Amino acid sequence: MGSPLSPVLADLFMEEFEQTALFSADLKPSVWIRYVDDTFVVWPHSPQDLQLFLQHLNSQHNDIQFTMEKEQHGRIAFLDVEVSRLPDGTLSRTVYRKPTHTDRYLNNWSFHHPSIKASVNRTLVRRAYNICDQDHLEPELHHISTALQRKNTGFTISDIWRPILNPS
């Protein structure tokens, strides 16, 4: 096991690293958002300049190496959010699931504490409300309902719909 201080120290190191690397870069991103070791960047310059920026980041420290994933067909995933670029230039958001995602959740017939079982659907619904824009919220809630009914999870219709109808 690592030290309980490891995440804090890593975050402090990365903050200093980012400040130094971004300050010394010739061209800068218009958006830079980091969560632990994932970074979301909006690059307003050319693709060639983006490659130079990546090389600049990777030259800052021998043990820190960035990789890059670019948007495909106007979409990119960051954590559990799929961000899409719309034709008018605005962005939309919905829940991202990896291609290997199976919609497998804790079974309501398991011997876990009732509060843990109740939190399964409530957490999925809360995530939908927090991530999805208005255009994607209803399809996401439908996906949650369908997944919990279809997978023989033991959740009743009222278990599934209670947090959807009364989000907190």
Automatic annotation (TrEMBL):
Record field: transmembrane: none
InterPro entries attached to this UniProt entry: HTH_animal (IPR058912), RT_dom (IPR000477)
Protein name, entry field: Uncharacterized protein LOC110988853
Reverse transcriptase domain sequence ranges: 1-95
Pfam families, per database record: HTH_animal (PF26215)
Phylogenetic lineage: Eukaryota, Metazoa, Echinodermata, Eleutherozoa, Asterozoa
